[in-house]
Design goal:
It is built from nine helices and nine strands. By secondary structure, the chain is an alpha+beta fold. The radius of gyration is 18 Å and the shape is globular.
Length: about 210
């Protein structure tokens, strides 16, 4: 019961403090800290909204309140659908509220996360074929490289980067200046978390 109440309070708090809805777009803001994080306050993250959607859906399963949050779920679905950049075959990082546009940056974790949360049938209804999505993402983010670990050198590994080489220098969607400076000066890297997403997405459909 304690965790049930906590979960409901958390979702309601997110809606109260982070939800934004305009004639153009609707979703959860990146942050509620308008003064401390001005840039991200006016941005809506695709990844974060997919995560929020999954949390709301799972809460509904135990609460039985399937009609309370339907508006927010529908709006998030619409947002994620519109974040798909058909010319790139990938999802945008999110929406710039002040610039009234979706970001050109295409993070690698959004494609598998969308597959795991929404499933291939729903994505297909949006005109997105999961096999094409994964193939495109792999061609852009996949890395076949060598790695040094525990005294073992030049271990051959395959994984996924967080963003492609061009994306690293093209646009800073968040305020992590040091990260992007590092990325611009160094080679690409395998990200364990992102790579695990692809392992799961290649073997599973929606968790619903």
């Amino acid at each position: 019961k304690r965790f049930f109440v906590f979960s409901q309070n958390l979702i309601d708090y997110m809606i109260k403090t982070l939800w934004v809805e305009t004639p153009e777009v609707a979703g959860f803001r990146w942050t509620s800290l308008e003064k401390d994080q001005v840039t991200n306050y006016y941005r809506i993250s695709t990844e974060n909204n997919i995560s929020a959607y999954a949390a709301i859906r799972e809460f509904e399963k135990v609460s039985g309140k399937n009609d309370v949050y339907v508006h927010y779920k529908n709006k998030i679905e619409e947002f994620v659908k519109n974040s798909y950049l058909s010319d790139k075959g990938l999802f945008s990082a999110g929406y710039h509220l002040k610039e009234h546009r979706f970001s050109d940056l295409t993070p690698s974790d959004v494609p598998p996360w969308a597959i795991l949360v929404f499933g291939k049938d729903k994505l297909a209804s949006w005109g997105i074929k999961t096999t094409d999505l994964l193939e495109k993402a792999t061609s852009v983010f996949g890395i076949d490289t060598k790695y040094n670990l525990g005294g073992k050198h030049n271990l051959e590994i395959y994984g996924y980067d967080s963003i492609d080489e061009k994306g690293a220098s093209r646009e800073k969607f968040t305020n992590h200046d040091k990260l992007y400076k590092f990325r611009n000066e160094n080679k690409r890297m395998v990200m364990y978390e992102w790579s695990l997403f692809y392992v799961l997405a290649n073997g599973n459909d929606s968790e619903e």
